[in-house]
Design brief:
By secondary structure, the chain is α/β, with parallel strands linked by helices. The chain has helices at residues 41-59, 75-94, 104-111, 119-129, 139-164, and strands spanning 2-7, 12-21, 24-34, 63-67, 99-102. It contains 5 helices and 5 strands. Helix 1 (41-59) runs parallel beside helix 2 (75-94) and helix 4 crosses helix 5.
């Protein structure tokens, strides 16, 4: 399974592509789309779309996972974040990929084991789980990788659950 995680932001949008093969996780790509504060929102959204589409085209994930909106400092920030999330979803949809959303609590729980983990703890666990030589430099990149790892762990759990759940019988 190959999953692209996206950590949406109006200044920095992190991305990471994680693959699971033989129960081992590996990082295929990671980075951050850095946006200029002086650019208009329309230009920023176009840059995010272009960058994410290029990553999808190059690394061919099977699906995209993003963080669900949970909190914004104010209405203006929430609207900007919503626009960026919409563009991330559009990039995935444009490529024919499904999109799955996870809460920050679910992501941290799946990666660190504690839903209120600090950013530094997420970076350290991402480094360990992906066997990286050092933590991702950007917290946005680490978060995107964590989102992808969360999906892989969650889907594996759901698959095991489906296999062990008693099947309903019809009479």
């Amino acid at each position: 399974m190959r999953v692209m995680g996206i950590d949406c932001g109006s200044e920095y949008t992190g991305y990471g592509v994680v693959e699971e093969r033989d129960r081992r996780l590996s990082c295929c790509a990671m980075g951050v789309v850095k946006l200029k504060s002086r650019d208009s929102m329309a230009v920023k959204l176009q840059q995010i779309f272009s960058a994410l589409t290029a990553v999808i085209t190059e690394h061919r994930p099977e699906l995209v996972a993003i963080e669900d909106v949970f909190y914004a400092a104010n209405v203006k920030s929430a609207l900007k974040l919503g626009q960026v999330r919409g563009v991330a979803m559009l990039a995935a949809s444009w490529a024919g990929l499904p999109v799955t959303e996870y809460s920050p609590l679910s992501i941290k729980s799946a990666v660190v084991g504690y839903g209120r983990a600090e950013k530094s703890q997420v970076q350290q666990m991402v480094m360990r789980l992906l066997r990286l030589p050092e933590p991702p430099e950007s917290a946005d990149t680490a978060d995107a990788l964590a989102i992808a790892i969360c999906h892989i762990h969650t889907s594996a759990t759901m698959e095991r659950y489906q296999k062990t759940r008693p099947q309903a019988t019809t009479s």
